Amino acid sequence: MLKPDQEIVQNCLAASDCRELRSAVASALADAGIEDGRLEAQLLICDAFDVSRAAVIAGIVDIQDPAKRDGLALMLLSRLSRRPLAYIRGYKEFYGLAYRVSPHTLIPRPETELIVDFVRSIYSKLSSSGSPVLIDVGTGTGCIPVSSLVHCSRLSAVGIDISAEALHVARQNGRDHGVQDRVRWLQSDLLEAITGMADLIVSNPPYISKSEIPLLAPEVRAHEPILALDGGEDGLDPYRRLIPSAIRVLKPGGYLAVECGIGQAQILSEMLRSSEFDEVDCLKDLAGIDRVVIGRRSTGSAI
Ligand code: GLN
Asked: DSSP 3-state assignment of 67?
């Protein structure tokens, strides 16, 4: 019979020193089906005892403080219930910066960094004729516009989300990273509330198909906001709405870059080609999957 989580946590805390604690926590996490139990054990101990990862790895942390032990017990219990580590720690690294997260925001993923790479790669071209404007649709933590602004000094941005709670987190992230003067946070359903024009529209919209949602890891399925995941029957609903409105908002010659799921890049590329976009291209993530589709609004179709 499975041991109740409370008992597992108590067994871990019976460890006599940091090394023993570290390996007990790692095993408990691995037994619960958590993939990277060793790394997560280190990070939980770092946070609970407020020490560096190097100190945890070296095994030189004093683990006797009762309040800190209670803190670890709570975090571990929460993680064993498959709450994502980022929600427990309160932040996640993205593009080399720490972003606050909450259960109202998707946890930033490494593949989304490709969008920031793209913004940086196109920025010098766009900024040669002024200060470009970027719009991020479905901004969540604001990780895309904030990271882009940090690296592109003349860029300004609008981060859009339908969720006021997500925008609250994004605003804090903008302040944390010193770009609050160049970003506006706007509550809107996709681009509906936008009246001006943009040089660049980016988005990591919800793109999981209905049938795949029950197959997601428990961390994602039961804890991340469904609004940030569910892309309708085939996962493409948000793009069907976003592409026509992007044509309304993008300046002729402006760029659209959207993240997509496995197997969606080809159909998305077709959607862009048949909707006033040229120079359609895909960027691959580290696993070799076509992950970001880019298009340039054709210059011949100025309104
Ligand atoms: N833009 C945010 C991110 O990439 C949120 C995306 C979303 O909520 N679908 O992490």
From this structure: helix
